[in-house]
Design a protein that fits this description.
about 25% strand; FAD/NAD(P)-binding domain; alpha/beta; 11 helices; elongated
Length: about 450
């Protein structure tokens, strides 16, 4: 690739997530050349993917083109491509658009969905780590209600409207709660043969409580709120099989047409091709300075790194804050070394925990900020404010706040396009002999509400 000057220090950044973007931005006023490579042309705020998957937000609300983010920074060159190999000895990065040499390399490739060695589950249980994943879940979710509207076979309808979410972390809790809201509040008013009690939402986790990393009192609160909403929660159980007919949990089989996976993450496949140590989750093991042992010019940040807090000895969490902090930390080390004012020994990374949050449902979220734990409407407001702050661009923030306010007041979701294959599969077409509880129960209830 062409460079504006060959004698400037060269930094290659792989990945345009929070880690990679913060590394690049840190060199805004520095005499360096940066090449940022990503297989997508956009920066994505993953914590809000579940809202795209359930129709509350559009994909463009939570993503921004990388070139737009960095267009004013003239020392950054953005390349669209997927890295295929890294040669540590020759200091070369090879990708499907060519190859780049570097003085410093920052690997910020993020993480992908983990199926714990059962990748065959993926076709039946999409994860939630990309916009494509979110759109696939949205397609399946809203297509299920279209099918159920005209499905007269009771067993087939129950299977269509059974949604199993695997994984009780923040993503699983948020997704399960949002699906239940769609089923009970958003859609029944618009359908004729579906009422709010028809959909069954099941949340499965292998641990003893939901949102395990959060305090126990907030885990109990999350479970209480979800159960009150009607979400069925199965704890201390593991998924042993996922097929087109449903999911097997231990010895129990749940007939479900829709299974969504939120159970874990792992590093990208690139990590396995490198001559360095990786953990069981394919994350690259780094030293206290976030560099790869034996290669002080190569750093790993964010979800791609297996890093340990130098003060506490605890793993650095795979959160947006972890990526931002490690990215800025690494950038500062590189700047000091480039400018010739580096200390004799590199500093060791220590994570500053700013707290954690999870949305449970409409007007309800849980939050842990230090020793302060709270939930309910205050948690919901805090969650909204924090997540809006992380979004890139004023337009995105303004649009998201408007959508949230509109959806909160009117209990609706406006981003409900069914993309991809819209074909419905119906076993027995609805006719006048539809079960009476569907024809009269919901309509009678609705008639009384309307007047």
């Amino acid at each position: 690739m062409n460079r504006t000057s060959s004698d400037l220090p060269r930094i290659v950044v792989i990945g345009g997530g929070f880690g990679g973007i913060n590394v690049a931005k840190a060199f805004k006023n520095e005499a360096v050349e940066i090449d940022l490579i990503d297989k997508r042309n956009y920066h994505l705020f993953q914590p809000l993917l579940y809202q795209v998957a359930t129709g509350e937000l559009d994909p463009a609300n939570i993503a921004a083109p990388i070139r737009r983010i960095l267009w004013k920074q003239k020392n950054v060159h953005v390349a669209l491509g997927e890295v295929t190999a890294i040669d540590f000895d020759k200091k070369l990065v090879c990708f499907d658009g060519g190859e780049l040499d570097y003085d410093y390399l920052v690997i910020a490739t993020g993480a992908r969905q983990s199926y714990f060695g059962h990748d065959e589950y993926r076709v039946h249980a999409p994860g939630l780590k990309s916009i494509d994943d979110a759109l696939e879940i949205r397609r399946r979710l809203y297509l299920a209600f279209e099918e159920a509207e005209w499905e007269a076979d009771e067993e087939a309808r129950r299977k269509i409207l059974t949604f199993v979410v695997v994984g009780g972390g923040p993503t699983g809790v948020e997704l399960a709660g949002a699906i239940k809201e769609v089923a009970s509040e958003t859609l029944p008013r618009e359908f004729r043969n579906i009422h709010c009690d028809m959909a069954r939402v099941i949340l499965v986790d292998g641990g003893s409580r939901l949102v395990g990393p959060m305090p126990e009192d907030l885990s109990a609160l999350a479970q209480k709120v979800l159960e009150k909403m009607g979400v069925e929660i199965h704890l201390n159980v593991h998924v042993t099989d996922v097929t087109v007919d449903g999911v097997k949990i231990g010895e129990e089989t749940i007939n479900a047409e829709n299974v969504f996976w939120a159970a874990g993450v792992q590093g990208q496949d690139l990590a396995k091709t490198l001559d360095t140590e990786v953990d069981r989750g394919s994350r690259i093991v780094v030293g206290p300075d976030m560099s790869i042992p034996g290669h002080p010019e190569v750093f790993v940040v964010g979800d791609a790194a297996h890093a340990t807090d130098a003060k506490t000895g605890k793993p650095v969490p795979g959160l947006a804050q972890g990526a931002i902090q490690t990215g800025r930390f690494v950038a500062e080390i590189i700047k000091q070394e480039i400018n010739g004012n580096a200390p004799k020994e590199r500093p060791q990374f220590s994570y500053y925990d700013k707290g954690s949050m999870a949305m449970i449902g409409r007007g309800n979220a849980i939050a842990a900020i230090g020793k302060i734990h709270y939930g309910g409407i205050l948690g919901w407001i805090s969650w909204n404010i924090l997540h809006v702050m992380f979004l890139v661009g004023f337009r995105n923030r303004f649009k998201v706040m408007l959508d949230w306010c509109w959806n909160y007041i009117w209990k609706t979701r406006r981003s409900r396009l069914i993309t991809g294959d819209p074909k419905v599969h119906i076993k027995q077409l609805y006719s006048d002999h539809q079960p009476p509880e569907v024809k009269t129960g919901w309509r009678k209830k609705h008639k009384s509400e309307e007047g």
